[in-house]
């Protein structure tokens, strides 16, 4: 990515972006939909838009996704990581 | 960020019943003293494991090392456990109980790392540094004639178009490289409010650069 694209990407804002508070409030629901490949982005486009733009929330999202996909968790769902974008 | 996306169609379908494992967690955590104690110990062990994995996952990017990382994981697990037991009635079964609980510990790790930023004696805040921006954005120094005007226009827009608060936040996050959570602590604010201010600043800067012909107003160029 060259500088123009990088700057353009950084300055681009998505009007659907719900912000940190809303995204974190539903993160546990969103992350399960992702892990089950069950249309998280379609159901929560505003959270998906936020996670694309917000570093700290995206970091928390990655952490929670890793936590629920941890094979040593012993859950009955098994680790399934859905596409992120 | 005008309209929070919270239409009823986006709401998760209410679960007819909890999955068995989540139901068992709730029952035990609200059970007899002995049941509750055993469940709390089991939950704490899970939270501690998640916290350790999380600090290790993030550790490479931090200036925190071994024992300190483990201490941070312990504190995050302890605080998450307190929050979970205090808020257990807020759990509505929209996810598995453990997913809901793990969110607390992930957010605790995040918050503690944000606070840690200012305790690190090695942290040096560079002055507002426009000289490093081309490099950070990946502009080719050999082609400076192509981007010099764009960055000059950006700087002018930051200095003339942003509010004082927008400018302060833009400079700290983009030019000085302060992590957003650390800046929120420094400004006695929160992640959401800082993000919202930066969001408005980004939108304003993009509009100015687009109006002046430096960027295309082309929605298809979205990532
Ligand atoms: Zn965020």
TrEMBL record, chain A:
Full protein name: Zf-HC2 domain-containing protein
Organism per entry: Nonomuraea aridisoli
From TrEMBL, chain B:
Name by which UniProt lists this protein: RNA polymerase subunit sigma-70
GO molecular function: DNA-binding transcription factor activity
One GO-annotated biological process of the protein: DNA-templated transcription initiation
Cited InterPro entries: RNA_pol_sigma-70_dom (IPR014284), RNA_pol_sigma_r3/r4-like (IPR013324), WH-like_DNA-bd_sf (IPR036388)
Species whose genome carries this gene: Nonomuraea aridisoli
Domain of life the protein comes from: Bacteria
């Amino acid at each position: 990515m060259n500088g123009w694209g990088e700057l353009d990407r950084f300055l681009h804002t998505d009007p659907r972006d719900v912000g940190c508070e809303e995204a974190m409030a539903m993160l546990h629901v969103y992350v399960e939909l992702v892990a089950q490949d069950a249309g998280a982005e379609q159901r929560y486009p505003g959270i998906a838009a936020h996670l694309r733009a917000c570093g700290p929330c995206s970091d928390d999202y990655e952490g929670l996704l890793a936590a629920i996909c941890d094979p040593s968790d012993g859950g009955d769902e098994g680790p399934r990581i859905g596409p992120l974008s | 960020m005008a309209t929070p996306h919270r239409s009823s169609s986006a709401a998760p379908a209410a679960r007819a019943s909890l999955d068995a494992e989540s139901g068992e967690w709730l029952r035990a955590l609200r059970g007899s003293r002995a049941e509750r104690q055993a469940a709390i110990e089991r939950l704490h062990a899970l939270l501690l494991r998640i916290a350790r994995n999380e600090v290790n996952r993030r550790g490479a990017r931090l200036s925190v090392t071994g024992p300190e990382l483990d201490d941070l994981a312990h504190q995050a697990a302890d605080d998450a456990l307190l929050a979970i037991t205090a808020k257990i009635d807020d759990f509505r079964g929209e996810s598995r109980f453990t997913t809901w609980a793990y969110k607390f510990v992930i957010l605790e790790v995040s918050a503690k790392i944000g606070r840690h930023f200012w305790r690190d004696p090695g942290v040096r805040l560079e002055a507002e540094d426009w000289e490093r921006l081309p490099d950070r954005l990946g502009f080719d120094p050999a082609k400076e004639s192509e981007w010099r005007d764009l960055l000059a226009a950006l700087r002018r827009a930051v200095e003339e178009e942003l509010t004082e608060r927008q400018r302060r936040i833009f400079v700290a996050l983009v030019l000085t490289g302060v992590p957003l959570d650390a800046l929120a602590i420094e400004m006695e604010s929160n992640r959401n409010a800082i993000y919202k201010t930066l969001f408005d600043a980004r939108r304003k800067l993009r509009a100015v650069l687009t109006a002046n012909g430096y960027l295309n107003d082309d929605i298809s160029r979205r990532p």
